[in-house]
Amino acid sequence: MIYPESKFKAFWDLFITVVLLFTSFKTPYDIAFTGVDLSLSYRLPDYFVDAFFLIDVFIIMNSAFYNDEVYLIDDRKTIIIEYLKTWFFIDVFSSIPVDEIFAS
Question: pTM here?
Fold first, then answer.
């Protein structure tokens, strides 16, 4: 179980924030200035970003959290149910490289 006060959780949250910032700048740049046929070396960072976001799904599923009453929830089943009811599907579907899948 990963607890909210752990150093790993703090590092991971900061790392994912940096990855999100990278994506928020790279995606509009790609849309505006690059073509469709990009080399593997240009697409490689996108693959890593997708992988990091999928890893984040598993980390979230194993991370304790505080509920509205500031009670620490560290029961894995409760964590997974809450995650499934909130951000799970958005996180998973946004991590799947749909453009690569349907490009074939």
Answer: 0.89
